[in-house]
Structure formats: C-alpha cells, structure tokens
C-alpha cells in the first residue's frame, strides 16, 4: 500500500467513469487510482449508486413480447456460474496495479520502454484513439520537458514521487491538469519515478526540441 | 410523503422523471409532481428476489425483476445511443447476466438497481463503444461472509435517501445529472456542474472499508 494519498480524483472524473463516458485511457487512470485508494473507491460506489437511482426512476421502453422467454431460454443454455473463490492475487509486491498489468501483460519488468530523451522513458499503452495512455519512467532527479495542455492530462504516480509548480505527488497520488497548467514535473531524488499519464489532446511543449520530436514520440 | 408502494406501482415517479429524462424543454416549476419513491421495503424485496435467484433459481422472482428493470435498462441504453433493436438485445443479455452472477451481488454494498446499472453500463461500453473497460483491482481480503442484515438494511435505506435527494433536485440540476449519465456531457462539462446530493452512501462504504482493513491487520 502506498503512503497516505493526498491528491485524489475529481468528482467529474469519478462520475464520468461511473457513467461510462470517459475515454478508455482516462478509465485506466481512474481504475488504477481506485485500486490504490479506499477514499475514491467509496466515492465511486456513490456515483454508481446515483446511476442505479437514475435507472430505477428512468422512463421505460417497451420490451418485445417474447423478450422474457428468450432471456430464460438463453439462461438455460448457459447455466449459472458456480461461486468461485477469488483467484489468489500476488499484488503485494507488484509496482503496477492490476488494471495496468492487464494492459502491459505483466508488471514493470514486462514494460517495453522507449527512450524519449533526458533519461526519461515511456511506453504507450494500447487504448481507444480519443485519448492516449502511457507509462513514464523518470530517473530520480530528472525532469519531464516543460509543457502545457490543450485538454486534460491525468498523471498517476506508481513509484517514487515528483514535484511540479503546484505540489509534491507521491505513490498513489493523481494530478489532474488542464489547459491552465504549464508545468515541469521533476522526479524526487532517491527512487526513480514511474507514472501512468493520460491525455485527451497533444501536450504543448515550451521548448523547440520536444516539439520537433512530438510526432515521433506520440505525446 | 413517501409511500410504501410496491415496486411495480412506482409509475408516478417514473412518469415524473421520464419527463425530465426526455424533456427537450425544461419543465415549468409549477409542473413539479409530488414525490413517490419506492420505500426501503421495496428495495429489500428486490434484494430477496436476487437471493431467490441465487439460492433457488427462482424463475418467478426473475420474471418480476425482469418486468420492472428490463424496460428501464432498455430506455437507458437507447438514451445512451443504442438503436431499439440493439438496446433490446443488450437488455436481454444484461438480465441474463443478473441470473448468472446472482452470487456476486452484495446487498451491503449496493442496491439491486445500482448493480443492474453497473452491468448495463459495462455492456454499453462493450457493445456501443467496442472498448475494454479497465476495472479496479479487487480488494485483497477475498470474498466476504454473508453480510449482516442490519448493514444491508442501512445501505438499502441510504440508497432510498439518495434516490429521493436526486428526485428533489431543482429541474436544471437534475437534467444535467441525467445528461451526464446518458453520455450527453463531456468530462469538462461535468466538471462545471457541482452540488450533487452525495455524502451518505460514501460514508457507509468508507466505514465498511476501514473496518475490513483493520480486520486484515
């Protein structure tokens, strides 16, 4: 378990995740943070409860006349699942929470990193195209190039910590940045920092070299 | 005042909310009908229905759940962009999933309608958006023992309060929430709206999580 989490998801993100309307890359950040954070797990349950009430008070759409019979037939074709004990999880020592491991196909050692300069490495995770998810590896003391955002950028710390113009972000913390924030995250000395970052628009770099490299790096 | 109506007699509230859900123009304040919500007994009745499916493969209980929820799930999916045919097919799958996964339902953590909503929502993402849905890691303590009846009652009561709080919201705010859940608002549009009537169920769930974490130590 990470130390105390100080930076949580916004209501808008939790509601969007609950409603099922966020891009897949954002869903991945939300599911990963919730895996680490009881507070946000409880808040998410509440947004799910709102969804439940909305369905319960919803207007109705007429079902076809044979719909119940068809459903019962489908059920008898595939019998009820037997109750299973939860598969033993070897999460204790993993750096990546399970939602990310499912995209990577394993823990950190399975990540296919690519260098993006300044010692920083990244790995793009395959999600739907409307937003991008990537893992970032920032060696202790190194900086991610100074950048701003056209849309929203979510950064979840998985190992180590970084600081930027706003605050310190440790393991489990999530930074929600929008177009108002220009920042330069710097990994703290000590442990190398690993983050999951998701963006719904290309980042805007403030220096020329990263700008030129951007199309190749897909950031 | 609240009435202890049986679930199937909840038409008054349905019509009222349906107006908001489908309204192209906001209703005038004068049109606000009196609130009729399903009471805690109804919610406990739905819980028993799911338990009857789980324990006895009770088709009559399933038929009642189907009669109430399938038309609402179908409407939810159509509001979210599914054609009537796709919504029909999807709804049948959602209801079949309830049968198959009845043993997964935990009435100390969610109301039956919340559970149905999450199943329908996941199906919606799968079918309409053809995307994977990353889900949070399960909590590390494995399956829980049968929950205490009192905990179940409390959670179901909190859900009822939440439902009433949503029903009592000003029309404009309620309209926004419905739009958010139907996928008609972007993330940044949701971010601009505040003041949801939250804070009850969260604290219940938070307490349960704290207790379980302590037990794990």
TrEMBL record, chain A:
Residues 107-199 form the ChrR-like cupin domain. It comes from the Bacteria. NCBIfam families: anti_sig_ChrR. This is Transcriptional regulator.
Automatic annotation (TrEMBL), chain B:
This is RNA polymerase subunit sigma. Belongs to the sigma-70 factor family. ECF subfamily. InterPro entries: RNA_pol_sigma-70-like, RNA_pol_sigma-70_dom, RNA_pol_sigma70_r2, RNA_pol_sigma70_r4_t2, RNA_pol_sigma_r2, RNA_pol_sigma_r3/r4-like, WH-like_DNA-bd_sf. GO terms for molecular function: DNA binding; sigma factor activity. Residues 161-212 form the RNA polymerase sigma factor 70 region 4 type domain. Pfam families: Sigma70_r2, Sigma70_r4_2. Residues 65-133 form the RNA polymerase sigma-70 region domain.
């Amino acid at each position: 378990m990470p130390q105390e989490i100080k930076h949580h998801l916004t209501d808008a993100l939790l509601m969007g995740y609950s409603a099922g309307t966020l891009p897949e890359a954002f869903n991945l950040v939300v599911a990963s943070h919730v895996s680490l954070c009881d507070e946000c797990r409880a808040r998410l349950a509440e947004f799910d409860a709102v969804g439940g009430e909305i369905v319960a008070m919803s207007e109705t759409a007429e079902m076809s006349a044979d719909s119940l019979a068809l459903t019962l037939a489908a059920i008898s074709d595939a019998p009820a699942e037997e109750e299973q004990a939860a598969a033993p999880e070897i999460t204790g020592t993993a750096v990546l929470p399970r939602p990310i491991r499912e995209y990577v196909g394993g823990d950190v050692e399975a990540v296919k990193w690519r260098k993006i300069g300044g010692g920083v490495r990244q790995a793009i995770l395959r999600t739907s195209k409307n937003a991008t998810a990537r893992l970032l590896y920032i060696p202790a003391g190194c900086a991610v190039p100074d950048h701003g955002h056209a849309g929203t950028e979510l950064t979840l710390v998985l190992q180590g910590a970084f600081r930027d113009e706003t605050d310190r972000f440790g393991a489990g913390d999530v930074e929600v940045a929008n177009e108002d924030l220009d920042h330069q995250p710097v990994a703290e000395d000590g442990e190398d920092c690993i983050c999951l970052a998701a963006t719904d628009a290309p980042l805007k770099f403030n220096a020329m070299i990263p700008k030129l490299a951007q199309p190749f790096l897909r950031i | 005042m609240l009435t202890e109506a049986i679930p199937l007699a909840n038409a008054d509230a349905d019509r009222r909310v349906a107006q908001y859900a489908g309204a192209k123009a906001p209703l005038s304040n004068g049109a606000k009908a009196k609130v009729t919500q399903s009471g805690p007994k109804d919610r406990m009745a739905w819980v028993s229905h799911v338990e009857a499916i789980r324990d006895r493969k009770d088709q009559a209980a399933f038929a009642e759940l189907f009669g109430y929820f399938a038309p609402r799930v179908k409407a939810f999916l159509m509001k979210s962009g599914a054609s009537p045919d796709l919504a029909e097919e999807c709804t049948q799958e959602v209801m079949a999933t309830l049968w198959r996964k009845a043993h997964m339902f935990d009435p100390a953590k969610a109301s039956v309608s919340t559970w149905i909503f999450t199943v329908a929502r996941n199906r919606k993402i799968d079918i309409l958006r053809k995307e994977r849905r990353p889900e949070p890691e399960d909590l590390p303590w494995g399956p829980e023992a049968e929950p205490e009846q009192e905990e179940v009652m409390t959670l179901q009561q909190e859900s009822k309060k939440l439902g009433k709080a949503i029903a009592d919201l000003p029309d404009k705010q309620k309209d926004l929430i419905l739009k958010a859940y139907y996928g008609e608002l972007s993330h940044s549009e949701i971010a601009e709206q505040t003041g949801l009537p939250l804070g009850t169920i969260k604290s219940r769930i938070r307490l349960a999580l704290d207790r379980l974490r302590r037990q794990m130590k």
